[in-house]
Design brief:
Distance between the termini: 34 Å
Largest sheet: 5 strands, antiparallel
Helix content: 10-25%
Radius of gyration: 13 Å
Shape: globular
Structural class: alpha+beta
Strand content: 25-35%
Number of helices: 2
Strand order of the largest sheet: 1-2-3-4-5
Length: 91
């Protein structure tokens, strides 16, 4: 479960918030336009945060990875954006 403090720490200058509750967070990167769905399993072992990703709204999500914390998941997303922008020349 994501805590209120974790959810409030999401950078709204960087992300557009779409859905936010204790178990599910859907955000869009303002840098790349990519969509991210983060799901808290509620279990503390085996990567309790599952990260799903898609490039466009109409595309289906695919699993991008797992994280131990919401903060770690957000860091992974920002690193993905850096890769998209610098290596793939996105935007």
């Amino acid at each position: 479960m994501f805590s209120t403090e974790e959810l409030q720490a999401i950078d709204t200058e960087y992300f557009r918030m779409i859905v936010m509750d204790p178990y599910d967070l859907t955000i869009q990167s303002k840098c790349t336009g990519h969509y991210w769905y983060l799901h808290s399993t509620g279990y503390s072992s085996d990567g309790p945060c599952i990260i799903f990703h898609k490039h466009r709204y109409q595309h289906p999500y695919h699993q991008h990875g797992r994280a131990r914390t919401l903060r770690q998941a957000v860091k992974s997303i920002k690193n993905h954006d850096v890769y998209q922008i610098t290596v793939r020349g996105h935007k």
